[in-house]
Amino acid sequence: MKLSNLVYAAIGYTLGARAGRDRYESIVRAARRVSGSQTVQATAGVVQANVDQRVQRAKEAVATRLGGPPARSSHRARP
What we know:
Blueprint: H1 3-36, H2 38-66
């Protein structure tokens, strides 16, 4: 772990502790509202479909270069 990351974490913890529980709860409520909005959900769906498509293309490109069929994986990232 880099020292700068540790310093940033300490600063964030200190500022968060000063803000208190009420501010934390306020931030959590706002984050939940944003993540639950239709716009964010729709955008996340589009992004996930785009990522899935690009991953499949990358698998096919690698398989082509290696001379084998593309691997079919049942593993899927969680939404």
